[in-house]
Amino acid sequence: MLAWRTAGMPIDILPQWTVWELRDQVEKACDLMVLDVRQPAEWSAGRIPEAVHITGAEITRRADEIPKDRPVAVVCGSGFRSSVAASVLKRRGHKAVFNVLGGMTGWEAEALPVVH
Questions:
Q1: Of 33, 76, 89, 104, which is the active-site residue?
Q2: Domain limits for position 37
Q3: Is residue 2 part of a domain?
Q4: CATH code of the domain in which 27 resides
């Protein structure tokens, strides 16, 4: 990063949301898309209501399925895989992309709604 910055290369920021910020946005019933990038077994064990499932491994191949005109909150188990997937979306031109810190682990720890 130091070499990148000192060379004057562009830097973009990936906004981070807590699970509570995501919950607030979901409850507003806006056009937010919740994108779950976990593995199929994790998805089957429980997910955020209305979430869309595309695994992190599929994100580059299936990125065109995610509308660029809607905000997207990306969720995984903890927030690491989702940050990678969200970065891919930003690189492909998605403007409003948010990484969810704590992911489903945090969501479930706070007893927020889960669909099984």
A1: 76
A2: 13-109
A3: no
A4: 3.40.250.10
Inter-CA distances, 26 with 5, 14, 31, 40, 112, Å: 35, 19, 9, 22, 11
The answer to the question of residue 101 being in a domain is yes
What are the per-10-residue average pLDDT scores of the chain (116 residues)?
A: 82 93 91 97 97 97 94 97 96 95 98 96
Counted domains in the chain = 1
Question: Which pTM does this prediction carry?
Answer: 0.92
Q: Is 76 a catalytic residue?
A: yes
E strands, the chain, where? 16-17, 33-36, 52-53, 72-75, 97-100
